[in-house]
Design brief:
Length: 85
């Protein structure tokens, strides 16, 4: 499987609402949690102090839990975390 080079395009709120209405609430919550956790994990920059390391690990754990739910429903919904070096 190769990664797509497509640029994400915003969709209108009404279209997003229609898509969301077709998905179970647990999947919508997992998608929200995964996006928030990925954003939180990207917020931290090395070198990490002990508190930042713990917060980043917590965000990554939340992302992994949410992605597990999303992958079981549809592997295409998994949120990728791009680590910062």
């Amino acid at each position: 499987m190769t990664a797509s080079n497509l640029v994400p395009v915003p969709i209108p709120d009404r279209v997003a609402a229609l898509i969301g209405a077709c998905m179970p609430i647990g999947i919508l919550q997992a998608e929200f949690d995964a996006e928030c956790a990925a954003r939180e994990a990207r917020r931290f920059r090395a070198p990490f102090c002990p508190e930042d390391r713990a917060d980043r690990e917590h965000a990554l754990a939340t992302l992994a839990r949410a992605n597990k739910v999303l992958a079981a429903y549809n592997p295409g919904l998994v949120v990728r975390h791009h680590p910062v070096h």
